[in-house]
Design a protein that fits this description.
homodimer; 214 residues; alpha+beta; Glutathione S-transferase Yfyf (Class Pi), Chain A, domain 2; 2 domains; 4-stranded mixed sheet; 9 helices; maleylacetoacetate isomerase activity (chains A, B); isomerase (chains A, B); GST_Zeta_N (chains A, B); Maleylacetoacetate isomerase (chains A, B)
Amino acid sequence: MKLYSYFRSSAAYRVRIALNLKGLAYDYAAVHLLRGGGEQLMPEYRRINPDGIVPALVDDGLVLQQSLAIIEYLEETHPNPPLLPSTPGDRAYVRSIALQIACEIHPLNNLRVLKYLKHSLNVTDEAKDAWYRHWVTNGFDALEPRLAGDPRTGQFVYGDTPTMADLALVPQVFNALRFNVDMAAYPTIQRIYDEALRHDAFVRASPEKQPDAE
Amino acid sequence: MKLYSYFRSSAAYRVRIALNLKGLAYDYAAVHLLRGGGEQLMPEYRRINPDGIVPALVDDGLVLQQSLAIIEYLEETHPNPPLLPSTPGDRAYVRSIALQIACEIHPLNNLRVLKYLKHSLNVTDEAKDAWYRHWVTNGFDALEPRLAGDPRTGQFVYGDTPTMADLALVPQVFNALRFNVDMAAYPTIQRIYDEALRHDAFVRASPEKQPDAE
């Protein structure tokens, strides 16, 4: 397998964790999201992923896009260890948390959006950072009581082993810390993040351990 | 089943199509996203969905959130007719298109984001509409050649029957048309949209057919 990745991309980070948890080896192809206006927008990469975003995973000639679709694919092709629970209701719960992060928080805060705010709407750096924090805190404000109050919450989001929900949560927290979001109001989220960072599959997937880390 | 919905919500629209395609009857609970600052933000609804967004589906006491998690749940609990292909590679393809719309286009253009642009960043209505069109055209520019060039494209995104990808695509096109996005550059997307609107399950799910339509 070959993963097209950028060390700081949250979406690529999710897939790296999944690959590590499943014990799957892969080649790392770095796509620099800033250099020369963004290598992800170049024709060479667009042939791999027409969306012009990372990650993309190539498995035996198949080119796969969208981090959560890639994770579902890995789950179907390499079911052990499972990244989803066994019952439909609990699977929906885990997926809903992954999707809350992937659809309600992350899309508003990724690089191309922050660039548009700055260059097309001419917002100040201060307003841009406030925008970032607004969507993270808005999302975490909803997520924290949900996790704190759910009996399924364990060392991880669902019980004591990682699921797809943790694969979305950990990169989002990493990103929030980079933007100095105050995590004091989110003790359950912070605790799960701390737990994950004691787990080898998460550590090896972290941005600073990637070949293209700066 | 009971669906918490708003007639114009793209995410609720996706789930309505899924329920219709699966032939599942449901009660419709209208949540008005504008009235009184938004009923979705009131404590009554937050008890159903702490995220304060629609849709939510209640099935036999289970409360489910996030449209794509709900659709996966319906797929697992009511597998016929299937909304995903049978092979992992094709399932990943269909999911990646649904996610491209759900993660790269829709989150940037939903009501709460447009409200933030207007009220917190004080952008003009013109700049807000340009923002809207930017993210739709950015997404459709990537999607159109993908669909036009893929041999799996049929009357629908994948073959001649609807899948999860069409459930995401149709509401997004509906929404784009409302904002006067010029669809001339997207003939394949437009053709699939037109095809879907000849399909009873899609027609009955459309915003103007809902009890809370205005």
